[in-house]
Specification:
The chain is α+β, with helices and mostly antiparallel strands and 184 residues long. It is built from 6 helices and 4 strands, in the order H-H-H-H-H-E-E-E-E-H. Strands 1-2-3-4 form a 4-stranded antiparallel sheet, covered by helices on one side. Strand 3 and strand 4 form a beta hairpin. The mean pLDDT is 87.
Length: 184
């Protein structure tokens, strides 16, 4: 007797009739969730999303599966302490998620940035609604081991920044020429 595992939440697209073979959670986002959440340090061990789109998909799945720690740890480290993990958890639990549609993925904007335009679908009183967003991501390197990871740039986080200060992503460039383009 074989046990059927659920389709990964990021594979459900209510806006498309395209027939394909959706990936199971264990073959899609679970390795990212498990690799990050089993690690107590800020460094990501285990599987890491290799693109901004992959990170976007894994973050959507984390919302559906109520994994607020993953949402926080995949946000740019300079913004993480400013996030309200309890509010993230409450929003994830209260939302009746219905699917994800990736509209466009621009994998290379400059040296280290990317964008993903998406619609996250949810139900309200049996009506299907969509949260439509153009999200920015940055790939940063850990100086200790030269390992690179993608992070979400959260535009809702209020930070007191000068356009001339070093960028919050650690690139060494001025904020206005780096992440400031996407957060300003």
């Amino acid at each position: 007797m074989s046990i059927s595992l659920p389709i990964c939440p990021c594979q459900v697209n209510p806006a498309s009739d395209a027939i394909g073979v959706p990936l199971l959670y264990q073959d899609c986002c679970q390795p990212y969730h498990d690799g990050l959440l089993n690690n107590e340090a800020d460094k990501i061990d285990g599987a890491k999303p290799d693109s901004a789109e992959r990170l976007m998909r894994s973050r959507y799945s984390a919302f559906v599966l109520v994994k607020p720690e993953y949402i926080v740890k995949t946000t740019l480290p300079a913004q993480q302490k400013l996030l309200d993990i309890l509010a993230i958890e409450a929003w994830a639990k209260e939302t009746d998620w219905a699917g994800l549609e990736i509209i466009t993925h621009t994998p290379k904007l400059g040296k280290r940035h990317a964008q993903v335009e998406f619609k996250a679908y949810f139900k309200t009183n049996e009506d299907l609604q969509a949260h439509h967003e153009l999200s920015a991501f940055v790939k940063t390197k850990n100086k200790a081991d030269n390992d690179a990871s993608w992070y979400f740039l959260d535009p809702t986080v209020s930070m007191s920044l000068s356009q001339k200060q070093p960028c919050i992503c650690g690139s060494g460039e001025k904020f206005k020429r780096c992440c400031g383009v996407y957060l300003g």
